[in-house]
Every structure is written in C-alpha cells, then in structure tokens.
Design goal:
The structure is a single chain. The protein is an alpha/beta fold. The chain is built from three helices and six strands; from the N terminus they run E-E-E-H-E-H-E-H-E. The longest helix has 26 residues. The model has no long low-confidence stretch (mean pLDDT 94). A six-stranded mixed β-sheet has the order 1-2-3-4-5-6, with helices on one face. The radius of gyration is 14 Å and the shape is globular. Helix content is 43%, strand content 28%. The N and C termini lie far apart (32 Å). The protein has one domain: Transcription Regulator spoIIAA (2-Layer Sandwich).
Length: 134
C-alpha cells in the first residue's frame, strides 16, 4: 500500500502514513480552509489500510503493532471533529483485534491540548492512548 504523505502548510498539519516504514504521524497546526477536503483522504486511507492489516493477519497469523502519533500544536473546532473521526477509525481497528495504539503529545504548558486528548480518549472503546508531555 502506498504511503500518504502531506507536507505541512501554515494552516494544515504534516501527515505521514507510511506502512513500509511503520511511521504514522499527524503533527503541527490544523485549521485548513476546507477541513473535510483535507481529512477525508486520511480517513479513506485508514479504511484501506485496515484491509492490509486483515491480509497481514490472515497471511502471518498476526499483525505487527502500529503506533499512530498525534503531535498537534493547535487545531480548531472543525478539525477536532475530523481528528475524532481519525481516532474512531483507529478505534474500530483496535476493536477488531489489530494491535493499534495512539500517542498524544502535548506541551506541558498547554493544558487545553492535554484535555482535548483526554476528551477524545473517553469516547473510544478500545484504542489505548498514551499521553506524552513534551
């Protein structure tokens, strides 16, 4: 499966979804002008990636652990909805038995970012989120 790589801009985060390197990261600021246009390809990529994990598990009997890192400096309320959609897709994978986990990074002075991650976490059923203060 091809990687999804999106360079950051002044308004949108860097996206690295690279299964060959086992790198999965969203980082930077998220306040794109058209939030759905930015995030829908990410969600679609994750849906397709779930098929890859199914094949991997079927062929090898297991799937290697996958860690998705969220390193946001800022996101607006519209982005929050789509970030939750990304987390829900990962949660769906975790519910289906794939070894998926998330890391939520936040600046120690940014209580709002920490609280946002904690609120997202409360809405998930199975996806573990590790909170990392930087």
């Amino acid at each position: 499966m091809n990687a999804l790589l999106i360079d950051p801009s002044e308004f949108s985060p860097k996206v690295i979804l690279d299964p060959t390197k086992n790198l999965f990261e969203l980082s930077g600021e998220s306040r794109p002008e058209n939030t759905s246009k930015f995030y829908i390809p990410i969600i679609q990529w994750l849906e397709q990636y779930q098929s890859v994990l199914y094949w991997e598990k079927d062929k090898f009997g297991h799937s290697a652990p996958k860690v998705f890192e969220f390193k946001f400096d800022y996101f607006n309320s519209t982005s929050a909805k789509f970030i939750m959609d990304v987390l829900m897709q990962l949660d769906k994978m975790a519910q289906e038995g794939y070894p998926i986990k998330a890391k939520w990074y936040f600046d120690k002075r940014d209580e709002d970012m920490k609280e946002s991650g904690e609120e997202f976490s409360k809405l998930l059923k199975k996806l573990p989120i590790e909170f990392i203060e930087i």
